[in-house]
């Protein structure tokens, strides 16, 4: 197991290097000049020259990349050009909000998608299977922003059960925090649950036809013992991969849902930074998202080895 982890961790170093080069290089392709944007309408040449020197925009591209990497190594992601705050502080402020929302959305997706997929596979070609498939198609077809608006109209405007928008930190009120996140978490988890259901169903159908499942049944084990103890463990491997990728997507791509429910999260920070040409924030946010994907995939690899010891070799 230790050798397995060492091989996986060793792959992270070159991956981080290429990711950092891509993030910094592609950032330079964005239209517009940040120095001109910061200089205001007058665009005094002296001010522009000062800004170029302050933010190293007058240096060659390789030198700017090295300075950026050195800053990252010391925990310095730069300063926001627009609001004059350290990028690290902005990320630490916004990421927990989206992280909590993404975590609740994954709980919703797993609670709905995995049991529905198992049941659809066990009851293959029955009304239950067809009903679960239709529900999955519904979840994939409904746009998140539209479902969010409908939930607000029903549970906030009509029934008055849940707050329509806003965010309250758990430190202020845990109950109010959960109430503000129930609807957005369901909106995000609904679409992922549909994908989870389809993957779980497909994986379970393949595993249920395998030799070791037939052997377990021949030994006289109960049907649900065969399904949950023997079949599900191997069927979860593709679901783990999907879960890691979907969680990473939630951290960076929940902007529409955050906008509908007025949640000050990570997605809104990314969009605002791109529109305002806040290069330091864009670089820091994209790097943070890339790191999340890398480590989520590492955790998925560890989960593979725990679920199926043969993969450790």
Task: Report on this structure.
- The protein is mainly alpha-helical.
- The chain folds into two domains: 2-73, no CATH class; 88-312, MetI-like (MetI-like fold).
- It is 77% helix and 0% strand.
- Helix 1 (2-27) packs antiparallel against helix 13 (279-307), helix 5 (87-122) packs antiparallel against helix 10 and helix 8 crosses helix 10 (223-253).
- It is globular and about 85 Å long.
- The N and C termini lie close together (9 Å).
- The mean pLDDT is 81.
Largest sheet, if any? none
| Domain module count | 2
What class, by secondary structure content? Answer: mainly alpha
Number of helices: 13
Topology:
Blueprint: H1 2-27, H2 34-39, H3 45-54, H4 61-73, H5 87-122, H6 127-141, H7 144-158, H8 174-208, H9 211-218, H10 223-253, H11 255-260, H12 266-275, H13 279-307
Helix pairs in contact: 1-13, 5-6, 5-8, 5-10, 5-13, 6-8, 7-8, 8-10, 9-10, 10-13, 12-13
